[in-house]
Amino acid sequence: MDLHTLDQLKKEKDCILLAHYYVDGDVQAAADYVGDSFTLAKTATQVDAEHIIMAGVQFMGETVKILNPDKHVYLPDLEADCPMAHMVDVDKIEAMREKYDDLAVVCYVNSTAEIKAHSDYCCTSSNAAKIVAAIDSKHIFFIPDGNLGRNIQSQFPDKEFIFNDGCCPVHDEISAEEIKSLKAQYPGAPVFVHPECKPEVLALADYAGSTKGILKAVADFDKETNIIVTEEGLLWELEQTYPGKTFVFPDMICEDMKKITLEEVVDILNTGKNEIDVDPKLAERAKVPLDRMLDICG
Ligand code: 13P
Ligand code: SF4
Predict the structure, then answer these.
(1) SS3 category, 206
(2) β-strand 160-163 against 191-193: which pairing, if any?
(3) CB burial string 3-20: b at 16+ within 10 A, e below
(4) Which of 196, 215, 216, 254 to mutate for ligand 1's pocket (most ligand atoms within 8 Å of CB)?
(5) 264 lines ligand 1 (CB under 6 A)
(6) Residues 226-234: what's their mean pLDDT?
């Protein structure tokens, strides 16, 4: 289906397509909004269409539904799930709360609705430090991503972080040696790293930030060749934004994001399948830390 026909179909169905930078380029090209996880969560609260298709993994669709309980939210592929979202459990949170009276549980948005419902604040990779800065508690339990927590810790010498051992299998796999070797191959190329990578990889970065942050930072460095250390789906938007520049990626593919296809999006528009739901009581509790994030970050 060509993009013009798809746009007409979306209009007819009063439907907006949101897409994360990691999905295939043809899905990004068809989307009304493409963004990082924070931008997408925020955008979802601002659109007035009755139906929203979230081209991303499960936690992204769930987040959209929690923030918009009255809208119909769909996921192109119900099997596309982020493994990190399941790398912490409620018992662990409860055990930490027993241990520290003043504990603040800061939950990366890459988490299940159940985990969000037991957390105090949500954050994304674009605003984790801003969220922690807004919290008075000394003890911060940062879940589920140990790397993201460790990567912001040095900005808060007065706080005590407790880390979880979850991680993104795609970002965590990249080694400092791989990045050193890319730097040797492309001398002078700035290195842009997503904070889900290990601290020793971030130590080699000229810029560290979310997918959207990386996109913007490329303009600031304005170099012809750039080393991008995140999932390779970001290449599509980088090439649209910076024609003529060269982007080198280590081998980083999120198999779950790659499950999402344009055919599935069209199928939803035609049939209304793959609508997701979150138990209203759970959603109400999970919305509290998400709203706090949106309040702090505007
Ligand atoms: P962003 O917040 O940068 O979009 O990252 C989401 C994600 O899943 C990274 O692996
Ligand atoms: Fe999850 Fe990693 Fe895929 Fe992002 S890249 S959705 S954190 S598995």
Answers:
(1) coil
(2) unpaired
(3) eeebeeebeebebbbbbb
(4) 196
(5) no
(6) 98
pTM: 0.95
Q: Which residue has the tokens 């949101």?
A: 18
Q: What is the mean pLDDT of the chain?
A: 97
Which is the closest atom of ligand 2 to the Cα of 255? 3
Quote the Cα angle for 87-83-175, to 5°. Answer: 90
- Is the pLDDT reported for residue 298 higher than 90? no
Cα–Cα distance between 195 and 207 in angstroms, integer? 10
Distance from residue 168's CA to the centre of ligand 1 (Å) = 10
Q: Kind and range of the H or E element at 193?
A: strand 191-193
Pair 107, 115: CB distance under 8 Å: yes
Is the pLDDT at 1 greater than 90? The verdict is no
Ligand 2 centroid, distance to 168 Cα (angstroms): 5
Q: Which residue has the tokens 């179909």?
A: 9
Task: Looking at the CA of residue 254, tell me the nearest atom of ligand 2.
Answer: 3
Residue minimizing CA distance to atom 7 of ligand 2? 168
Contacts of 184 (CB under 8 A, 6+ apart): none
Tell me the best of 109, 110, 173 to mutate to test the pocket of ligand 1, counting ligand atoms within 8 Å of each CB and taking the most: 110
| Alpha-carbon dihedral sign for residues 179, 83, 297, 155 | negative
Task: Determine the average pLDDT of the residues in 137-153.
Answer: 97
